[in-house]
Fold each of these.
Amino acid sequence: MTASTVLLVEDNEDHWTIYRVLLEYVGYQVLLAGEGYEALRKAREEKPHIILMDISIPGIDGWEVTRILKADPDTASIPIVALTAHASEAARKRCEEVGCDGYLAKPVEPRRVLAEVERFIGMPTAGGG
Ligand code: MN
């Protein structure tokens, strides 16, 4: 059995570090992508169990990455939770429209990130991989 894998899409190194340390501490395996094309590639190649998607990232933005992944039968079933500083009703609606499964407005408390990951994929499964 492989470990529960989270693809963390985030271009801010401080946020990267905080969420990665937290998720790894709990036992998830974390993959990182710092921009949109890398996020697309890693989602397709690694098929993570869930994606935490920053919206403002270099390359193509998180809305577009989400739209593309949700339009592809190979990746459509991967839950995507938007992590964004665009904390408005319009931004939330746009996340819904492109297919995000969840939405967290920054700044996000680390325990809320964990709770959201757990809500979609449960606690990490044992086993390296
Ligand atoms: Mn960002």
Note: The pocket of manganese (II) ion is lined by residues 11-12, 54, 56-57 (CB under 6 Å).
Amino acid sequence: TEALMRSVLNQFQQIVELGKNVPPEVVLNVTHIEDPGRLADMITPNLTLKVPDKQQILETASPRERLIKLTVMLQREVEILDVQRDIREKVEREMGETQKEFFLREQLKTIQQELGERDERGTEVEEYRSKIEEAGMTDEVKERAFKEVDRLEKMPFAAPEGVVIRTYLDWLVALPWSKATDERLDIKEAHRVLDEDHYGLAKVKDRILEFLAVRKLSGTLKGPILCFVGPPGVGKTSIGKSIARSLGRKFIRVSLGGVRDEAEIRGHRRTYIGALPGRIIQGIKQSGSNNPVFMLDEIDKIGQDFRGDPSAALLEALDPEQNGAFSDHYLEVPFDLSNVMFVTTANLLDPIPAALRDRMEVISFPGYTEEEKLEICKQFLVPKQMRDHGLLPPEAQEEAKEEAEVDETHPEVVVESAAPTQPTVDVPESNAPEVGHTESPYLMIQEDALQRIVREYTRESGVRNLEREVATVCRKVARKVAEGETERTTVTADAIPDYLGPKRYTWGLAEEQDEIGAATGLTWSEVGGDVIAIEVTLLRGQGKLTLTGQLGDVMKESAQAALSYCRSRAETLGLEDNFYRKLDIHIHVPAGAIPKDGPSAGITLATALASALSKRPVRRDVAMTGEITLRGRVLPIGGLKEKALAAHRAGIKTVIIPKENEKDLVEIPDKVKAEVEFKQVGHMDEVLEIALAPAPEATETEKRPKAKDRNPSLPAGLPA
Ligand code: ADP
């Protein structure tokens, strides 16, 4: 009985714990009851029992029997309550979440209402709809955009996907689908603008005007794309800006240098986080019109790797046959690029992928002569820098500011800085831009000072460094003015080192006198033409050929070819048959830190070598360029214009060029042709005839090693 009593009590407590509603005093009382019958009678009325069950317990007289029946019923009750609890918990869990959101939403609504932001959602969607209507999209695009708006509307307000859709819609409505600036294709006006912004470049301007004239007559932009090729700072970008200005179009410039990923051109798919359209569409959006002049800079610097081939995407954008429906991965709808005027720039033509090059009309900018640089400096760079440094009189400064605000991209205030008494270089009539006669009250840079900057502080094909140096002078003067020194500064040639420091280049010939074993070559790279010296030294040895100065494979092979040529000419050069067996030959090309390559140094290498071997000095005012074959034939080279300009800059008087480059001579400025003699050669023998001076008289015996020290097999004058 005792055990039964405990078990019943236990079960009763379990029931209470499971949530059965029992008055607390009952729970307390039953624990103190000692009589088994009474215990059963106290508990039974608190249970949810069916009437027959209650009757059964009532009819059982023995307390023990009563307790036994009760435990069975209690156990059933425990189980039922247990299941009930499970069900309740599950229901509560599910109800809880939806209800919570519901409550929060209702609260948010009330807060928004209180703040007066009622129904923001509705307004946002409506706004998108009206913007889409106004954006001038094609039906296809419009349909797509509306679909996105519908999706946005159905989404919970703060759903993360909503952000993606909003950004996408923002892009769609911001693009100039049918917004265009008025086109003005007046060739005369275009000519005027080009002349106003740029000195010289007559051929380039002609080509551009012809290009525009054809466009005007044919009434379409379909056709090749202009590609400006030339070293940095020769005005490629600024001519592009001028074209835009003369046509009344917007100007956009995008640099392609280092672009390797197709997605940079064509955009990322929207599935990527932070996806954006490619550079083309970004540029179009920035310009705000669908017919800008779009400059793709450094098209020769695009790369290609596992992320796809950007040039293929570019091709699609540039090709007039396809670009009516340019597809950007992000936009997913076609954009019409057929009204865009694409212009590309490059430093070199060769690295441009062939498929792209094919569709381009190349206009080359060879670089400037010293006189041209001076004129550009006087007419454009000095006034521009004065304006940028606030050195113009207040009215002119004000005017410049206004103009800059009207069109930021066209700094075109042109003022003459030189005093009227200054000697001026004649400017051909057609090139002379209209020049305002505003002088700076603070600064005057004399012409010979400018010339000194050109000669001693810059050595470049373009004028970028020149502009920088002029800016330095202006900056220093601006400081003086700002510090309260009001007197006008006149910068003379002698004062230039005070402003710019010691000179950086020696103007004129590189060598002081005709040298044995050193020849002057002409090179051409993406920064324009340059002059290099090639040095050869002979040492006693066993026929080893050493090449230093970071030469590329092609150049090393040229050196081998040059040596073979000299060996085959041993007799003419007055050498022993097997002279090379007793000699080590060291060829060096300064500057040693800069990698060099290319075949066009061939004849220079051979000349330096022949000079060292024959002891005949090379004329120091002769420079040369040309590839050499084993039998001494001279083959044509590229970049003659640039090389010719570099030779002229360096004060060279004679330039030896391959016969087959004769056709390129027409492109060389007359000024250069007047001062430099171009000798065309077909064979290395002719090169040596021109370049080598006769052997020095043997009077300087004291300079030579004593006879007994000399190895009779070595050419004269070799160090013992
Ligand atoms: P690039 O694009 O060829 O590297 P930029 O167009 O940037 O060169 O030219 C560099 C600077 O030289 C610009 O300030 C430009 O106005 C000036 N410039 C270059 N050529 C001329 C020229 N023929 N007449 C006037 N300014 C020039």
Note: Residues 406-437, 699-720 have pLDDT under 50 and may be disordered.
